[in-house]
Amino acid sequence: MLSRKELFKDTLKKAAHAWKRTVELHLTEEEANLLRLYIDQPGYVDLHWVMFVPAIKGQGTEEQQKKWLTMAYKFQIIGTYAQTELGHGSNVQGLETTATFDPSTDEFIMHSPTLTSSKWWPGGLGKTSTHAVVYARLITEGKDYGIHGFIMQLRSLDDHSPLPGITIGDIGGKFGSGAYNSMDNGVMRLDHVRIPRDQMLMRLAQVTREGKYVHSDVPKQLLYGTMVYVRQTIVADASRALSRAVCIAVRYGAIRKQFGSKAGGPETQVLNYKTQQSRLFPFLASAYAFRFVGQWLKWLYTDVTQKLESKDFSTLPEAHACTAGLKSVTTSATADAIEECQKLCGGHGYLNSSGLPELFAVNLPACTYEGDNVVLLLQVARFLMKTVSQVASGKQPVGTTAYMGNIQHLMQCKSVVNTVEDWLNPAAIKEVFEARALRMAVNCAQNISKAPSQEEGFEAAVAHVQLIIVTKFIEKLQEDILGHGVKEQLQKLCGIYALHLIHKHLGDFLSTGCVTARQGSLANERLGKLYAQVRPNAVALVDAFDYTDHYLGSALGRYDGDVYSALYKEAWKDPLNETVVPDGYQEHLRPLLKQQLKLSRL
Ligand SMILES: CCCCCCCC/C=C\CCCCCCCCCCCCCCCC(=O)SCCNC(=O)CCNC(=O)[C@H](O)C(C)(C)COP(=O)(O)OP(=O)(O)OC[C@H]1O[C@@H](n2cnc3c(N)ncnc32)[C@H](O)[C@@H]1OP(=O)(O)O
Ligand SMILES: Cc1cc2nc3c(=O)[nH]c(=O)nc-3n(C[C@H](O)[C@H](O)[C@H](O)COP(=O)(O)OP(=O)(O)OC[C@H]3O[C@@H](n4cnc5c(N)ncnc54)[C@H](O)[C@@H]3O)c2cc1C
């Protein structure tokens, strides 16, 4: 119910309090991150910790890190990541802001040459950040060397006013009433602003005192390293958001009753309807699947980072493909699922007090920020096409594409499934996912020379990423899992995750010849049985996420199931209910009613 200004101020207050507690309690970085999660409101700190600090860590020299990170870690400065412009977001190489080296003063001149070169979107830029890593075209000795990162001070550390030559503001209200409106996404124009040469982030490339451009012996893609890092964290965010929505919808589904009473008996819990289960349980399974793949992705990222430190860049393309692909598939599925959970809760799901509208509005932009999901999947397609051509020339693929090495078998195999029970076999499931992904990638690679099709590449990328998620779920189940019967429940969810994808993408599986129509219908039959088996434990499976009522913020998703009293209480909190007769009655309602009354008496 807060206005934009109040909401923004509230975010500042919460962030300042969280930082105070972080310091007082000597929280570790991991604990401090958890604190941000509990605050649960997008704010400038996200950009400071998730992008500004990592950008300096990844692209700054040791000296630069020492200088800037020392201040950033103590919150003496607040930073953001200023890459996107009004005219270009996806196409990073198309950015227009310039950083022209002036050897006479040993400075860069930072400038926005056009309206479309205005920085547009960076979180925290609008009203909060004192500093930013600004991405701009480096020009020296008259030559344009493309996009590089620069540290800029934006606002005075004394009175917070923008420094000379810098025009900054907020870009305006965003989707939803609360949601991302707590964040001051900003616009910035630079008018020949001078910064010292040593504020260019110089780990990947340097400009010498004389103005000579020198590139280090590291891949230039490391410039995109911060985005790889954040995409990896977004997968974990998506799984959390999805599990919150599912928790609300499952708990409410167990409370809500409609129809089906026989001889005056109780009505049916909506969760018992098969249609409700077939819409909802795939989301429950996806929430677990995304959590497991997110844990694996975190491991992959750490592994790649360690390799990069010892100058082994071999796994960088795979890390890019995995983070880009998983970020896309998990955030798109999550946004769709939250919206569907709202429908699964009927009319009450549309109320703000259900918690679902806010959850949707906060998570929807994850499909766009940190790389539009379609653009990122096209990057995965590019990686797959390269891998296919390497396999064709005899190179053995590794990591998540290792299955492509089994090309002879996977291009021809027919699924071994013959009965409904056969679809319980993880090896049978994995084989059809591998065969589908490989065949789609190979078909796309073969067609590229004839008529390049973006959609074919996109679909092949989706198939590959879904294979990764299914595989990581299956691998998780090979680990020791504590708790009586827990593994069995997870096996059922794994089955649901994989089989619902076969159901959804049956066209792909049929057209690539991986499964027959009969096998497809056996998969559906198996899926129906799994839904029935999961139903008795559905509430326990969402309770296992261990969310407090406060964190869930939903009248429908309450742990105690006392949904109706909660909805009733929430309704009375609405400002419209502060007075019995509404504001506006005297000016607009009363005269109207009186006039109609007069007319009717004539
Ligand atoms: C004591 C301690 C106290 C600590 C206290 C802590 C307190 C804690 C408080 C808070 C913590 C917060 C908790 C964390 C919670 C997480 C919250 C998450 C919130 C997120 C907020 C997000 C904000 C959003 C920010 C943004 O959106 S930033 C902007 C993002 N922009 C994009 O993503 C742009 C997308 N476009 C691109 O990436 C590129 O343009 C492109 C599409 C990849 C194309 O690139 P290019 O033009 O160069 O073309 P290509 O020719 O296609 O590529 C060339 C080759 O490069 C390869 N490539 C491309 N990208 C990469 C990459 N990233 N890595 C590696 N390689 C890459 C590509 O494959 C090509 O290779 P080739 O071999 O085929 O040539
Ligand atoms: C809430 C939010 C926070 C953000 N925070 C930041 C931030 O802190 N810092 C920052 O720098 N940026 C930030 N951004 C910007 C964000 O990174 C960009 O919006 C994003 O990268 C998408 O770029 P775009 O807006 O240019 O979309 P566009 O590329 O213009 O996309 C428009 C449409 O075109 C399609 N499209 C584009 N290129 C292709 C292609 N090659 N092939 C096929 N289809 C294509 C897309 O799929 C999409 O449907 C934020 C954005 C949002 C929404």
TrEMBL record:
<keyword id="KW-0443">Lipid metabolism</keyword>
<comment type="similarity">
    <text>Belongs to the acyl-CoA oxidase family.</text>
</comment>
<keyword id="KW-0276">Fatty acid metabolism</keyword>
<protein>
    <recommendedName>
        <fullName>Acyl-coenzyme A oxidase</fullName>
    </recommendedName>
</protein>
<feature type="domain" description="Acyl-CoA oxidase C-alpha1">
    <location>
        <begin position="224"/>
        <end position="385"/>
    </location>
</feature>
<feature type="binding site">
    <location>
        <position position="84"/>
    </location>
    <ligand>
        <name>FAD</name>
    </ligand>
</feature>
<keyword id="KW-0285">Flavoprotein</keyword>
<dbReference type="GO" id="GO:0001676">
    <property type="term" value="P:long-chain fatty acid metabolic process"/>
</dbReference>
<dbReference type="Pfam" id="PF22924">
    <property type="entry name" value="ACOX_C_alpha1"/>
</dbReference>
<dbReference type="Pfam" id="PF01756">
    <property type="entry name" value="ACOX"/>
</dbReference>
<keyword id="KW-0576">Peroxisome</keyword>
<dbReference type="InterPro" id="IPR036250">
    <property type="entry name" value="AcylCo_DH-like_C"/>
</dbReference>
<dbReference type="GO" id="GO:0005504">
    <property type="term" value="F:fatty acid binding"/>
</dbReference>
<dbReference type="Pfam" id="PF14749">
    <property type="entry name" value="Acyl-CoA_ox_N"/>
</dbReference>
<keyword id="KW-0274">FAD</keyword>
<dbReference type="GO" id="GO:0003997">
    <property type="term" value="F:acyl-CoA oxidase activity"/>
</dbReference>
<dbReference type="GO" id="GO:0071949">
    <property type="term" value="F:FAD binding"/>
</dbReference>
<dbReference type="InterPro" id="IPR029320">
    <property type="entry name" value="Acyl-CoA_ox_N"/>
</dbReference>
<dbReference type="InterPro" id="IPR012258">
    <property type="entry name" value="Acyl-CoA_oxidase"/>
</dbReference>
<dbReference type="GO" id="GO:0033540">
    <property type="term" value="P:fatty acid beta-oxidation using acyl-CoA oxidase"/>
</dbReference>
<feature type="active site" description="Proton acceptor">
    <location>
        <position position="370"/>
    </location>
</feature>
<dbReference type="GO" id="GO:0005777">
    <property type="term" value="C:peroxisome"/>
</dbReference>
<dbReference type="InterPro" id="IPR009100">
    <property type="entry name" value="AcylCoA_DH/oxidase_NM_dom_sf"/>
</dbReference>
<dbReference type="InterPro" id="IPR055060">
    <property type="entry name" value="ACOX_C_alpha1"/>
</dbReference>
<feature type="domain" description="Acyl-coenzyme A oxidase N-terminal">
    <location>
        <begin position="2"/>
        <end position="78"/>
    </location>
</feature>
<dbReference type="InterPro" id="IPR037069">
    <property type="entry name" value="AcylCoA_DH/ox_N_sf"/>
</dbReference>
<feature type="binding site">
    <location>
        <position position="123"/>
    </location>
    <ligand>
        <name>FAD</name>
    </ligand>
</feature>
<keyword id="KW-0560">Oxidoreductase</keyword>
<dbReference type="InterPro" id="IPR046373">
    <property type="entry name" value="Acyl-CoA_Oxase/DH_mid-dom_sf"/>
</dbReference>
<dbReference type="InterPro" id="IPR002655">
    <property type="entry name" value="Acyl-CoA_oxidase_C"/>
</dbReference>
<feature type="domain" description="Acyl-CoA oxidase C-terminal">
    <location>
        <begin position="426"/>
        <end position="594"/>
    </location>
</feature>
<dbReference type="GO" id="GO:0055088">
    <property type="term" value="P:lipid homeostasis"/>
</dbReference>
